[in-house]
Design goal:
- The protein is mainly β.
- It is 12% helix and 31% strand.
- The chain is built from 1 helix and 11 strands.
- Strands 4-3-7-10 form a 4-stranded antiparallel sheet, with no helix packed on it. It has a 3-stranded mixed sheet with strand order 5-2-11, with no helix packed on it. Strands 1-6 form a two-stranded antiparallel sheet.
- Strand 8 and strand 9 form a beta hairpin.
- It is globular and about 45 Å long.
Length: 146
């Protein structure tokens, strides 16, 4: 009888440990990167990164690193069709609600230069931003300039 009780207890702990909900204040975030003509950025190995920022003080250089802004960076991998889904710590956990600067980290270059403009790689240079909201669909479409 004791072995069955111990087995049931361990099974319960395993089940609870493996089933975790999305943290409070986090929501799913997806998106796509497109060229100006509307075609998606395809077959480009790249990572997407969202870093918190203050839209009231946009010139502050990475204020989240010094603890001036709440939130955490989040990231995702660009799929071959140009889409992404973000995570903060683990797949499926989503993103904290807030304002973000958006970076696209792609390393592939064509013979006539980079496929993705270099300015999208750095926090201080990227013009891309996103406002992740608690309600509504957080699907972003980012238009890239060459």
């Amino acid at each position: 009888m004791r072995a069955i009780t111990t087995t049931n207890f361990l099974l319960c702990l395993f089940t609870i440990g493996c089933w975790e909900q999305r943290p409070e204040g986090f929501v799913p975030v997806t998106g796509v990167f497109q060229y100006p003509n509307g075609s998606p950025l395809t077959d480009v190995p790249a990572f997407v990164r969202f870093d918190p920022y203050d839209p009231e003080n946009p010139d502050t250089d990475e204020p989240w690193r010094s603890g001036l802004l709440p939130g955490k960076s989040c990231r995702g991998e660009l799929t071959p069709n140009g889409h992404f889904e973000l995570l903060t710590l683990r797949p499926g956990d989503g993103v904290a609600v807030g304002h973000y600067k958006v970076m696209l980290l792609a390393e592939i270059s064509a013979s006539d230069g980079p496929i993705v403009n270099e300015r999208y790689k750095l926090y201080e240079n990227t013009p891309l931003t996103a406002h992740v909201k608690a309600d509504g669909k957080n699907h972003f479409v980012f238009q890239l300039e060459k």
